[in-house]
Amino acid sequence: QIQKEEKNPSFWNAWAQRTLKDALTLQVLNRNIAKNLILFLGDGMGVPTVTAARILKGQLNGCYGEEVQLEMDKFPYVALAKTYNTDAQVADSAGTATAYLCGVKANEGTVGVSAAAVRGQCNTTQGNEVTSILKWAKDAGKSVGIVTTTRVNHATPSAAYAHCVDRDWYSDGEMPPEAVQAGCKDIARQLMENIPNINVIMGGGRKYMLPENTSDVEYPSTRGTRKDGRNLIEEWVDRTKDKRGYYVWNKKDLLSINPSSVDYLMGLFEPGDLPYDLERNTSMDPSLTEMVEVAVKILKNNPEGFYLLVEGGRIDHGHHEGKAKQALHEAVEMDRAIGHAGLLTSPHDTLTVVTADHSHVFDFGGYTRRGNSIFGLAPMVSDVDQKPFTAILYGNGPGFKLVNGSRVNVSTVDYQQNNYQAQAAVPLRMETHGGEDVAVFSRGPMAHLLHGVQEQNYIPHVMAYAACIGQNKDHCQKGNSAVRSSALAPPTLGLVITVTWLLC
User: Fold this and answer.
1) Which residues constitute the catalytic centre (predicted)?
2) 316 is in an annotated binding site
3) Active-site residue flag, 93
4) How does the average pLDDT of the chain come out, rounded?
5) What are the C-alpha distances in Å from 386 to residues 373, 378, 389, 404, 426?
6) Residue 88 pairs with which residues in a beta bridge?
C-alpha cells in the first residue's frame, strides 16, 4: 500500500527542496572549539545494520519504517572508515578500538599498543604502548567517562585505558602464568591503575574485579576470577569515598544519585556483559540511555568539558549468534541514547561522532515489499528448493541448518522470536565480522573534517583537533576558546516539517 501523498511528484520535490535548503546552511562551517567530545561506537554496526535498525525503529512506531530517520541519520556529515587491522583484512574489535581511540592502526587482538606488539607475547608490550584520546582529554583537564553494554574491560572500552597484547586478559585469572610472572598486567587492573581518575565507568564485568573466592553480590554462585586476591571494587571505593565518589551495582542505586554532587561513579551491573535490551531486567539493570544520561550529567560538572566513550557493544554479540532481532534492538537502543545525549548537549560546543568498529556478514533483501516486517519473509519462494526465506540472512554462522539434507522450511518455525537464528550460507558456531567500510556520522565543531573515505585511525585526530587536546594545538590561540557565534550554522529547516507522516 503506497501512501497517498507519495503518488504525487510534488511530495518528493518539496521534500528534496527542504533537504537542499538544509544542506545550503552547512556552507557556514562550525569552527568552534569543542568543549565536549562524545563517541558513540556501535560494535559491529555496519551499514546494513544501520539501515535495518532504521526500518525497525519506524516499525516499532507504527510506520512502514524505510522513510524514518535514526538520530544518527540527522547528523549533517557522513564519512566512511576503512576498518582493516595492520595484520587483518577483516578486523576485530581490539585492533579497531586502538585505531579510533589511540589514532594508530594495530594488530587484531591487541589494545592500546602499536603494531610492533605481537598478540599474546607479553615481552612485546613495553615500549609499544600508545595513549588514547580519553587520556589526552584527562591530561587537558577534562572529565572523562566510559559507558558500555559489555564488560568494562572488553575490547572496545579497554583500548581507552589499557596497553595489553591480548584482549582476553580480562583479569589475571585469564592470563598465562608466564605472562603474569613477566610483569604484564591484566586489563581490569589497568583500569584501576593506568588512569586512576576516570570519572565515570559503567557497564558489566564485576567478576574480573573480585578475588576468585568472593561471591557476586547479585548471583552468589558466581565467583570472582582474580588470582592475586585483590578486590578492585573495594580499592576504587576507598580511593574515591572522600572525592564525591559512588559505586553502584543496580539501576535503583544508579538513578537515586544526584549527578550534580558526584565527581566519580563506577557502576558495574553484571558479572559479565549486560543482558540484551530485549531480555533486560528493567528493575535491576539500566538501559544504555539511562546510563548515558547519568554519565553526561556527571561529566558536565566540569567547566573544562568532557570526553565520553559510549559503546553499544551487544549489537556485535547478537550478530555473532545469528540473532538479528537482538542485534537490531540493541542498535535502536543505542540510537535512542544518541538522541538523549543530544538533548543534554549542544552542537554549538559538543562534537558527537557515531561510528562502528567493523561490520558483519549480515544483510537483508529478497525484493521485499514496502513496509514488510524487517524480520519477515521475502515475497516469493526460492526457485531452486521451492521454500520460503526470510529477508534477513547471514553469509555464515549458526543459522545454517539442514533437515533431511535440505534447507529448513522457515514457515514451520517462529522466525519472529527474539532468539531466532537467521539462515546462513556457511555453517559456523559463531558468525564472523564483515570487512567493508563503516559509516562515520558527525555533528558539532569541526565535524566537517570527518568527510570522504578515511583510515579509521583518523577519527581521534579530528576529535582532538576540534577540542584542542593531544598533539593538535597550534590552531588554538589563547583567547580563541570563546565560541564564535558567527561560525554556528542556523537551525536546520527540517525541524519545522509538520507533515505527520514524516514524523513517524
Assistant:
1) 93
2) yes
3) yes
4) 94
5) 21, 13, 10, 15, 20
6) 85
What digits encode the pLDDT tens for the residues 20-67? 999 999 889 999 999 999 999 999 999 999 999 999 999 999 999 999
* DSSP secondary structure code for residue 30 in this structure: -
C-alpha cell at 126: 613495553
Residue 156 among known ligand-binding residues: yes
Q: Which of 10, 93, 171, 382 is catalytic?
A: 93
Phi, psi of 129 (to 5 degrees): -70, 140
Contact 398, 326 (CB under 8 A): no
**CA distances (Å), 438 to each of 41, 220, 242, 393, in order?**
11, 41, 43, 19
Q: In terms of DSSP bridges, do strands 350-356 and 36-42 run parallel, antiparallel, or are they unpaired? A: parallel
- Please say whether the dihedral angle defined by the alpha carbons of residues 265, 289, 286 and 112, taken in this order, is positive or negative: negative
254 vs 241: CA distance, rounded Å? 16
According to the annotation, is 320 in a ligand binding site?
Answer: yes
Cell of 112: 592500546
CA 198 to chain centre: 19
Cα–Cα distance between 144 and 200 in angstroms, integer? Answer: 7
SS3 letters across 241-277: CCCCEEEECCHHHHHHCCHHHCCEEEEECCCCCCCCH
Contact of 101 with 158, CB cutoff 8 Å = no
**What pTM does this model have?**
0.95
Instruction: Report the distance separating Cα 395 and Cα 364, nearest Å.
Output: 11
Nearest-angstrom CA–CA distance, 365 and 374: 10
Longest dimension (CA), the chain: 75
